[in-house]
Amino acid sequence: xxxxxxxxxxxxxxxxxxxxxxxxxxxxxxxxxxxxxxxxxxxxxxxxxxxxxxxxxxxxxxxxxxxxxxxxxxxxxxxxxxxxxxxxxxxxxxxxxxxxxxxxxxxxxxxxxxxxxxxxxxxxxxxxxxxxxxxxxxxxxxxxxxxxxxxxxxxxxxxxxxxxxxxxxxxxxxxxxxxxxxxxxxxxxxxxxxxxxxxxxxxxxxxxxxxxxxxxxxxxxxxxxxxxxxxxxxxxxxxxxxxxxxxxxxxxxxxxxxxxxxxxxxxxxxxxxxxxxxxxxxxxxxx
Length: 287
Known about the structure:
By secondary structure, the protein is mostly helical. Helices cover 74% and strands 1% of the residues. The N terminus is likely disordered.
């Protein structure tokens, strides 16, 4: 019900006595709802309930197991099976490929930011290779490096390199001219100019490229392991999913897919969001 303006206290009274403004505290439910973690957790619970109900209605565990069956398979795979070891195998290979690709991408973007020939080189290479799916390089990887970790690293570097290089280069190009002039006035040039001036100013774009490169690398790794997945004598998560598909262990296949999703959520929530909070948001460069 709308309160009449005549019944409201005058502004002069509010200014003289701020306590005249009654502030109603939020209820525990409202405070909890303001937390993104709570809202997203409720969405996940809702999706799990929909999954469970659909599995009951389908009544075909071979084609679509229920959420509870998948949970049991996940627990068994983590505690008594090989799921944890397979996940760690994939993460080890991913970190190596992601690190190599990130270093090459930043060096290439820095070279493009400092010289005209570097800019032409980056533009030409990204136009050629960025549209090429990393998974399409699997035949060449097998031919050149054989069955094992080097082949996986080859496709991972390709998956990370181009999106990160493009984002870093765009971030360098968007650095304000005032910052560039300040760096030159201090006598900075070459790589010192890039590291001390361009890199901090372009960090939001670089961070976006790191996130995109991570997503591309993670899904490329799982797809590659599904095809030839043995790395250093043991398969990763993709190979785990492929093996259990052949055994018609559908709940275990879903458990492997759930592990892929959980690792992706953990990296996004614990690594990239923490990095954003401690850097670009703390610096006032991003909301």
